[in-house]
Amino acid sequence: MSDSDDLALQTLLTVRGETAPDVDEALLRACYAVQRRHQFNRDRAQSSVAMERLIDEAVDASIQGAAA
Predict the structure, then answer these.
(1) How many CB atoms lie within 10 A of CB 52?
(2) Residue 9 Cα to chain centre, angstroms
(3) What is the pTM of this model?
(4) How many CB atoms sit inside 10 A of residue 34's CB?
(5) Is the pLDDT of residue 2 over 70?
């Protein structure tokens, strides 16, 4: 955690450490960034599409890493 992290992200990272330490911190930060970037968009589909893409990429990377 860095000093530049806002309170919401700090909280997510703390909870992650306490309840789901296996969740990749980089993925959590990327998900948070997507939600923050799209939080005021009227079109909620933009956020959903971006999150789905991000999660699909993480799953694909995990599968490829496990196969190697």
Answers:
(1) 11
(2) 10
(3) 0.77
(4) 20
(5) no
